[in-house]
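Tokens as discussed.
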């Protein structure tokens, strides 16, 4: 289908994969948007951003780049210097400044359960993979989803390397020059809403608060999520 709409590139965060975007993809495609759901390696911020930047270079025309959680840090780096990217959309996401990591930002405000939610798997050589413990995935990561849906997401989650969450962002970050939009999850127990609001205000973003939403706001509120993405696309 020929369309003048920008391509929407969706970037998942840690403890997830692209399958979580199914409802978003269905709605965007139905509205005539080309969509790419990127596979985020979750190995390191610099390498993850380089993989995404290579994918973006393969796309013709304007792009709206969307990141959830750690994916927000990845898009902030990957889009730097890319004139095709017309908007950045952050979904309950990290929006780091140079020198900040996901790990440092999540501890900036009280309320995160991430430290007591993680289940580490040692890899050797001092490296570790991190999962959300399935026993607390529902209350801590996806509280506004049905329990059976949260259980499926817990089972299919992909781990993030501990090094990725601790790696600081490099300079400069794309949100300094590209318009940004932030969907803030009001009852987030992973990235507290206060932290999301701080990052959004600092970046000068257009923001929307979803009261009562968990960290998986794009799954529990797909229509609201798509509306913000399409607002960014029309800007």
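Sequence:
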């Amino acid at each position: 289908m020929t369309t003048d709409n920008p391509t929407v590139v969706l970037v998942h965060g840690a403890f997830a994969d692209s399958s979580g975007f199914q409802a978003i993809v269905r709605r965007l495609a139905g509205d005539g948007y080309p969509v790419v759901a990127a596979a985020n390696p979750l190995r390191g911020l610099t390498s993850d951003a380089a993989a995404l930047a290579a994918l973006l270079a393969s796309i013709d025309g304007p792009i709206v780049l969307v990141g959830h959680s750690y994916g927000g840090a990845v898009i902030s780096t990957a889009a730097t210097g890319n004139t095709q990217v017309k908007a950045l959309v952050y979904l309950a996401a990290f929006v780091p400044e140079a020198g900040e990591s996901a790990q440092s930002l999540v501890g900036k405000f009280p309320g995160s359960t991430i430290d007591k939610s993680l289940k580490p798997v040692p890899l050797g050589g001092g490296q570790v993979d991190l999962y959300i413990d399935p026993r607390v995935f529902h209350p801590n990561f996806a509280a506004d989803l049905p329990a059976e849906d949260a259980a499926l997401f817990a089972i299919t989650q992909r781990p993030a390397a501990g090094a990725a969450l601790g790696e600081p962002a490099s300079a400069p970050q794309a949100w300094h020059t590209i318009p940004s939009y932030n969907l803030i999850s009001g009852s987030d127990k992973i990235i507290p809403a206060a932290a999301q609001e701080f990052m959004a205000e600092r970046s000068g973003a257009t923001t929307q608060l979803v009261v009562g939403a968990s960290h998986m706001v794009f799954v529990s509120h797909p229509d609201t999520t798509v509306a913000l993405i399409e607002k960014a696309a029309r800007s």
